[in-house]
Amino acid sequence: MSSCIKHLLSIISPKPSPSHSPPSHPPLMDPSQITHRTITLTTTTLHVAEQGADPNRPVAILLHGFPELWYTWRHQIGGLAALGYHVVAPDLRGYGESAVSSDDDVYSSLHVVGDVVALIDSLRKEQVFLVGHDWGAIIAWYVCMFRPDKIKALVILSVPFAPRNPLRKSVEYLRSVYGDDYYICRFQKPGEIEAEFSRLGTELVLKKFFAYRSPGPLFIPKEGWGSPDEKITLPSWISEDDIKYYTNAFEKTGFTGGLNYYRNLDKTWELTAAWTGTKINVPTKFIVGDLDITYNTPGIQDFIHKGGMKKYVPLLDEVVVLKGVGHFINEEKPHEITKYIHGFLSKF
After folding, report:
1. Are 325 and 291 in contact (CB under 8 A)?
2. By the 8 A CB rule, do 26 and 83 touch?
């Protein structure tokens, strides 16, 4: 175990500027312009989607969350490439066409940060821009905590920085606040939530997640998360074809890879004890929707707006709150998010 941790810690242990004049509406995805490849890293094997590959361009790596894939960035890939970036959007370990390990012990944030650092090294770049949403945001925070030398600037969507509390484990705290039916608590026991998702069917599960817009906490009752015959009205920003793409991918891999990130929350808490109190010393922009469940967690808005996050992220440049926008912000507001990302990254 100690040699494994040492290996993980060892892993995590002049460029032209993009255009400064973004078009009023950056282009949405053109599949013919996006290339796909599999990269064998020292840590795992990752599938990446990319556009704008050019050694003279700055690299922007986009990290997705749950239940997502590289595809969640489909609009930003083309938009940012058109603005002068080499855009790289991986399927994180356990997702899509990347390696899916049956060992649930290899999904701690240290493992995934190791993947990101190895990916950066494979691109032969000393520094990159990093953008993260949902779990991708959590991983991006950790990348900047462990290896700030690798990141030129950071854009975070939805999930604010969460300083480590040395007195309480993550899941224990969430269970004390929300109870056993809170979705993260329901994800903890291997096989249990997978059985519920199987009962409902992959497509319906994905629709329920993407259509969820309540600012309140998400609960998945033990007696069942609805009927397999339930009809879900999709929001306007995601189509049946989009759902079909996600469904095909998750029917091949299952949800376990993504769920294992949640199952390693307490392991990550244990392994990161040495970084308690560490600040994020990377220039950062934070963007969130006011209907996002993360933004409506008790105490979070005060933490974000009254100096708490700035204390831990001293180079926090700006906080943007989009009105009437939910959790899947980069899909719901694709043009706006591309412009915000470029507007910040173009300063560096």
Report:
1. yes
2. yes
Burial letters 223-255, b for 16+ CB under 10 A, else e: eebeeeeeebeeeebbeeebbeebbebbeebeb
Q: Which of 94, 130, 133, 89 is nearest to 112 (CA)?
A: 94
Backbone φ, ψ for residue 347 (5° rounding): -80, -10
Confidence grade of residue 264 (pLDDT, cut at 50, 70, 90): very high
Dihedral angle computed from the Cα positions of residues 97, 157, 34 and 143, in that order, rounded to the nearest 10 degrees: -60
Give the H or E element holding residue 154.
strand 151-157
Per-residue pLDDT at 328 exceeds 50: yes
Question: For 147-160, what is the mean pLDDT?
Answer: 98
- Nearest Cα neighbor of 264 from 147, 104, 48 is 104
Strand partners, 276: none
On whether the CB atoms of residues 281 and 314 are closer than 8 A, the answer is yes
Contact call for residues 201 and 183 (beta carbons, < 8 A): no
**First vs last C-alpha separation in the chain:** 40
Residue with tokens 């180079």: 315
Can you say how many angstroms the Cα of residue 35 is from the centroid of all Cα atoms in its chain? 21
Distance separating alpha carbons of residues 253 and 102, to the nearest angstrom: 11
Going by pLDDT thresholds of 50, 70 and 90, the confidence category of residue 24 is: very low
Q: No. of H helices and E strands in the chain?
A: 15, 8
Calculate the CA dihedral of residues 21, 24, 29, 32 and round it to 10 degrees: -60
Residue found under tokens 């969640």: 72
Look at residue 1 in the predicted model and tell me its pLDDT.
Answer: 46
Residue written as tokens 């080499």?
A: 86
> Active-site positions?
134, 262, 327
* DSSP states of 327-344: S-HHHHSHHHHHHHHHHH
CB 40 within 8 A of CB 48: no
d(CA 279, CA 56): 31
